[in-house]
Amino acid sequence: MRPTHYHHSMQSGSGFILMPVLVILATVSSMVFLVHYETSMSLKISTTGFDNTKTEYATRGADVLAQWSVDQVADCSSYSVMPSRYFGDYKIAATVSPSTGSPVTITSSSTNLTTGTSYTTTQTVERYNDGWGQWTVIQPDGITGVDAFIQQDSPTTNKGGDSNLVVNSETTKSVRSLVKFPLDDIPEGSEIAQAIARFYLNSGTGASEYHYLHAVTSEWFEDQVTGTNLTNTTTWGSPLWTNPPADLDWPETGFWVAGTSSGWKSADITTEAQAWFNGTRGNYGLMIYADPQAGNNEKIYTSSDDGTASLRPKLEVFHTCPCNVCPYVPPDD
């Protein structure tokens, strides 16, 4: 069974008001710059060189208008060709190809009607459905999920197939849990804006305590990881059971208070998810642990092998989605 996905779109109403104003200001600014530049530099450069510079800036103004026009097409269809427009001695225009989908190539141009000087720019840009994004919930099952817990007092035991994820801060008997969230179902070309990891706490004993969530910096395998080994051929760094543990990124990415009451616990892991998705950091998952202290303080979370699908660990990701990849979801009213 594949991870479950849910979708939701968002938008900012103020953008529709502000963007046209910003576009006009950007275009007018280009024109004002030309006038100022001509006054201050007319004695320093040749007429031909200055004319080329003015024409280039007129083209930049056309490019701003064209990009704004493309961004207004929420469902990536029927991009409009910007008709020729006139700014003093300049005629500007822009085309978009293809007229639907993504990526698109925007070609902007301007011509000095007096001298005949022209300038053209071409750029290819990725387009995203509705300009905002959507939520995807990744909640692996026992087949696609990768999680386990490791035990200080049973350092060679693998717990990769257990229905629980256990955390215990008891001195000399610490237990820590590991989880990976696959990002394969986030479409290539997307940009992650937010990622929230959620874990269901089933039960707890002992004192309420902080549980910390850290990104793991070394590869581990679900069916091989133990309190000694990351894999069958690699071991954890030292120290592991005292602070700060080896093979973890510092500082923590998030934390929560875990007591004896059941319920969801969560942490924002946006920075980690972005790095995993962009390939700037290996996706070695996360560790949940608590600082060592006296007493049995065992807390039990559900794992991806739990029989209740809705309670398995999940990662909620809000991301943009390239056109032609995800279906268009109209914004909420």
Topology, pairings included?
Layout lengths: L12 H29 L5 H25 L10 E6 L2 E8 L6 E9 L5 E8 L8 E5 L7 E6 L12 E4 L7 E6 L11 E13 L4 E7 L38 E5 L4 E6 L1 H9 L7 E4 L9 E4 L11 E6 L14
Antiparallel strand pairs: 1-2, 2-3, 3-4, 5-15, 6-8, 7-14, 8-13, 9-12, 9-14, 9-15, 10-11, 10-13
Helix pairs in contact: 1-2
Task: Provide the gyration radius in Å.
Answer: 28 Å
> Which secondary-structure class do the elements indicate?
alpha+beta
The percent of residues in helical segments reads 10-25%
CATH architecture of the largest domain: Sandwich
Amino- and carboxy-terminal Cα gap: 34 Å
Unreliable sequence segments = 1-19, 34-45
Broad CATH class of the largest domain: Mainly Beta
Number of domains: 2
Can you characterise this structure?
This protein is of the alpha+beta class and 333 residues long. Helix content is 19%, strand content 29%. It has two domains: 13-127, no CATH class; 134-319, Jelly Rolls, CATH 2.60.120. The chain has helices at residues 13-41, 47-71, 270-278; strands spanning 82-87, 90-97, 104-112, 118-125, 134-138, 146-151, 164-167, 175-180, 192-204, 209-215, 254-258, 263-268, 286-289, 299-302, 314-319. Strands 5, 7, 9, 12, 14 and 15 form a six-stranded antiparallel beta sheet that branches. The protein has a five-stranded antiparallel beta sheet with strand order 6-8-13-10-11, with no helix packed on it. Residues 1-19 and 34-45 have low confidence and may be disordered.
Nutshell version of this structure?
The protein has 333 residues and is an alpha+beta fold. The protein has three helices and 15 strands.
